[in-house]
Amino acid sequence: MKNLSSGQVRSMFLNFFKQHGHTIEPSASLIPQHDPSLLWINSGVATMKKYFDGSVVPSNRRLTSSQKSIRTNDIENVGKTARHQTLFEMLGNFSVGDYFKKEAISWAFELLTSPKWFGWDKNNLYMTVYPKDKDAIHYWEKAGVAPDHIVKIEDNFWDVGQGPSGPDSEIFYDRGKKFTKLADDDPENYPGGENGRYLEVWNIVFSQFNHKPDGTYEPLPRKNIDTGMGLERVVSIFQNAPTNFETDLFLPIIHKTEELSDHQKYDEKDTKKDVAFKIIADHARAITFAIGDGALPSNVGRGYVIRRLIRRATVAGHELGIDDAFLYKLVPVVGHIMESYYPDVLEQSDYISKVIHSEEKRFNETLNDGLKLFNHLIKQLKASNKTEMSGKDAFKLYDTYGFPFELTSEYVHDENLSVDEHGFNNEMQKQRDRARKARGNDMAMGIQRDLLVDLKVPSKYVGYHQLTVNDTELETIIVNDKFVDHVDAGKKAELIFKETPFYAEMGGQVADTGVIKQGDQVVAKVGDVQHAPNKQNLHSVKVLKPMKKGTKYTLVVDQIRHSKIEMNHTATHLLDQSLRNVLGSHTQQAGSLVAPHYLRFDFNHFGQVTDHDLAKVESMVNQQIFKEIPVKTVITDPKSGKEMGAVAIFSNKYGKKVRVVQIGDFSIEFCGGTHVKNTDALGMFKIISESGVGAGVRRIEAVTSSDAFDYLNREEQILKQTASQLKVSKVENVLSRVDQLQNQVKTLEQKQASLESKVAERQASDVFKNTSNINGVKLITGIIKNSKMTQLRQLADTWRSKKLSDVLVLGTSSDGKANLIAAVSDDQVKSGLKAGDIIKTAAKEINGGGGGRPNLAQAGGKKPAGLDKAMKAVKDYISKK
After folding, report:
1. DSSP class of residue 762?
2. So where does this one cross the membrane (predicted)?
């Protein structure tokens, strides 16, 4: 057996398929692009959907990749089993309507057994197949697999409901008897059974049927291959590791954790301590990559997953005696492990560490609060002579404070009590159902749309250099999803021309609009342009006069609109680089819109953007505009572009040729959009808004040129109107006048508050004299007219300092709203009487709610007429205590 590193295994797999004519697709971001059905990229094929459903035709129908993936459906088992991982890499080879079973099977066997490649003993390999898949059986035998190493299993059929489906073949590696605890005759002791001996390393799906809505299956017009090989599992075989965790993908993280835990040792046994080491190693990898790809901790979606992983790893750290933040120190370790294929992790390690460190510190405080809640729940159970913690309480500890069920169960058992595991699982399932419903059910790939997939007519975009094309041939007309030879006036159609100056929407830049002419007559209006699967520009038009295939037309782009879009696109590049310069290199584009009258730019950033930083960004962009910098475009290959220093959008896939847009020495990016020739064309740049649009995602909206002038002009008019209303002759005196008026208002408010307090005190002097005695509790209640909560709190302070009674409840009303305050002496609090309980009882009568501390609480409501009833409700409540 060869002893290969994880990097060597990954490289060998990709190079094997490259030699067999496959294009190596780079690992995409963990955050799905244009796929709302997925929370994370969870497999290699997840990034290939656009090819398999026909929305995009790849330049090469043979593809291979090593795709980082996250799966969160089984987090609870991470660390307890040999193979469960949150983040993993899926090696795969894919055929989009090219080769099928014969090649897929023969190449798989060659890779696994050839001395040039993996060099595994074929006697250690077992293949499972769908019983009716005679072709797969035949090709495995032909490749050299013994018949008794081919196992027929009825479940070997990949089917997720409607859409593509087909049989699959799984490949297992026999690790020997020492890896199983089962008896030889155990029914699960076979390849595909629940055992540790036979390790599944590869699954090959033969997608050959369309599962129709009526439940029947029909052959697909194109048969596809989709495979998945878990890198971590394969590496464990090469490195003779008992589990995935004893490989070079995890051991450096575990060894660093040993240092941080005062040199506690990981010894490969499934003990409580070693489970903690595994959880930390797995979760450190997952959160490092997830944050590196732009996700941030939050309470929803992907952010919730990151927060949950950090919390679980932090609790595991506590199990090892690590009480301080430590996960952030593992980020560089992860970066060094993965540096050969994912250099961006090390490049962003400072930023990733900062995010994790902040979340860790916050959770360490939360963890202490969770322990307080746990102790409170235990005290309640014992006080009520109950022996079982409810599933809801256990889930609250898990969901709110990050306590894994196992930790709660262990602590409960230490108190000689139990926990309702069934109830906890019910709550967990409810949460999963909510998450699944929120993501939607569109999980399956669509069927390839042959209409456009097969369309190979050439179409050239020339809009980088000209906005009018004369005498270009109309090659394709589509009406109601059918090819036609002509289209009448009044119809809507999709058109493809031999040459076009119309830009198709891409990279955030909206499509061009304009007209189609024949001679001097306008025959159609272009409202939108999109890319067809084979990259032709597909024009959506409203036909004004009959049009015919094969006829030549003149295409005219709306030049003014196009020019405005170009300005905003160039401004977007200047803004992107300015944000990196001011906020840090960690900022990444998270989305953009380049429209005629404004630009919108979303970017990842942990924390607020201050007004000072925003002003610096805006100034920096304008400095580049005023410098009149030439904007140059170079066409090259992706590698050369990166060597030039071009910034790439990590989630994008680039072809053999790319456009690199360079703005002096300030900005250089990969970009397929259109741009001005010189920054002076922008005139000026103005940010009109900055806000948060999601966890760790900020949004800037801005304008340029005449739109910036119009914006500033409107702002100036508002300022002049304000000056007029404030009766100042010059605009520059507005601020001083506003300061003067604010000081006057503040003085008047202080005087009003003083008068209100005096009035309230006079009313209270009478109220304080009326003391009731209910069941030994001295109570003062009263309604103060036309007062506010501030005065009620002051009166409560006076009451407490003078020790006038055991309980005080006051109410007031103003502006159609009611306020209540309740105060309880310390002695009565000790006896069990709480202000919060009293205020809740009273608040019901004013249609409101509130709360507070045991000795002081307040409430507000919308029913002032209920204040008298509120006072009576308080007396009734105390009489029943």
Report:
1. H
2. none
Whole-number pLDDT of residue 444: 43
Task: Name 157's bridge partners.
Answer: 167
- Binding-site residue numbers for Zn(2+) are 569, 573, 671, 675
Domain range holding 244? 6-249
The binding site comprises 569, 573, 671, 675
DSSP annotation of 45 reads: G
Q: How many residues does the chain have?
A: 881
DSSP summary character for residue 509 = B
Per the model's pLDDT, the better-predicted residue between 767 and 629 turns out to be 629
Give which of 610, 766, 609 is closest to 697, Cα–Cα. 609
Is 530 found in the same domain as 598? no
Quote the distance between the C-alpha of residue 240 and its chain's center: 36
> Residues 114, 215: one domain?
yes
Q: Are 476 and 455 in contact (CB under 8 A)?
A: yes
DSSP string, 421-437: HHHHHHHHHHHHHHHHH
Q: Which of 247-251, 404-408, 860-864 has the highest mean pLDDT?
A: 247-251
Rounded Cα distance, 332 and 334, in Å: 5
Residue-wise pLDDT tens digits, 300-330: 788 888 988 998 898 889 888 898 899 999 9
- The CA distance from 316 to 310, in Å, is 10
Which of 557, 588, 604 is where one domain is finished?
557
**Amino acid (one-letter) located at 213:** P
Q: What is the mean pLDDT of residues 750-776?
A: 81
Compute the distance between CA of residue 377 and CA of residue 357 in angstroms, rounded to an integer.
30
Q: What is the pTM of this model?
A: 0.68
